[in-house]
Amino acid sequence: MENQIRFDSVSEYNAFNQHETLHPLATVVDLSKAEARQLKTMYLGLYFVMLKGVACGDLRYGKQHYDYQEGTLVFFAPGQVVGLENELYRPNGHALVFHPDLLHGTSLNQHIHEYNFFRYQTHESLHISERERQIVMDCFAKIRYELEHALDHHSRKLIVSNIELFLDYCKRFYDRQFLTRETVHKGIIERFEALLTNYFLSDKPGAIGLPSVAYFANELNLSTKYFGDLVRKETGQTAQDYIQAKLIDVAKEKIFDHTKTVSEIAFEMGFKYPQHFSRLFKQHVGQTPNAFRGLQNLN
């Protein structure tokens, strides 16, 4: 039977790592002090951030594998299932773990969804420099200090504020990573453009429907969140806007074909309802498809 464990509370995770529970909703764990373990899958009911110190097995999330090394941050949100493919390993590094209930009534709770890296795949992890690692450890130390401090009416606010500060630093570090991996990412954008062009040259629009961000992310072996962030960083547009711009370009060309009605073109491009095509076309072009076709006849 597969070795697996659920972590629905901070105390469960602390007990698993032989770590004292200082606060019921948050913990910072030095994983080097934990015993060697054999584990294949973990169900996470908590927010997890792991800063790995040494290689300790292949992490699997979905179909992806990532051998995470020193200076790597991996993020997981509640509800994810994570696997470790290793018979026996001794953990190292540090983990920040907090329960969603910690955020209730705080400003962070209102925008925790904006930290897209909690939904990235493991091969899209954050690789940090030594200086960035020092900042991470400083943030962890501040959170740990509040956890070790006697609980008072400031505790929760300060813990959450320091978690938010840490996450904001991670946003900055990811922005830096997007820049330092610009050559790799440009290759991904070129592949995205080719996939998008081929999509409209195929019979997929009629068979599958309108192209989605999730479809291209999957084709490129990326998570939807990471793919969306990458496209925005490289092009200044959201992935959805990029797809719609291509769709309109293709539609403009098809409208020159007077053997087809606007409705036929709409269905051919993947729209279920022609009026939706006309509405989107007018939003982007400023004219309805029929008006645009009529204007071309005057030229």
Can you describe this structure?
Residues 190-295 form the HTH araC/xylS-type domain. It comes from Dyadobacter luticola. This is AraC family transcriptional regulator. With 299 residues, the protein is of the alpha+beta class. It has 2 domains: 4-180, Jelly Rolls (Sandwich); 183-298, Homeodomain-like (Arc Repressor Mutant, subunit A, Orthogonal Bundle), CATH 1.10.10. The protein is 49% helix and 15% strand. It is built from 12 helices and 10 strands. The chain has helices at 10-16, 107-111, 130-148, 155-180, 182-201, 204-208, 213-219, 224-235, 239-255, 262-268, 274-285, 289-298; strands at 4-7, 26-30, 41-44, 47-52, 58-61, 64-67, 72-76, 80-85, 93-98, 126-127. The strands form 2 sheets. Strands 1-3-8-5-6 form a 5-stranded mixed sheet. It has a 5-stranded antiparallel sheet with strand order 2-9-4-7-10, with helices on both faces. A hairpin with a 2-residue loop joins strand 5 (58-61) and strand 6 (64-67). The chain is elongated. The model is unreliable at 54-70 (pLDDT under 50).
List keywords for this structure.
transcription regulation, HTH_AraC, Arc Repressor Mutant, subunit A, AraC family transcriptional regulator, 5-stranded mixed beta sheet, alpha+beta, 299 residues, 5-stranded antiparallel beta sheet, single chain, Jelly Rolls
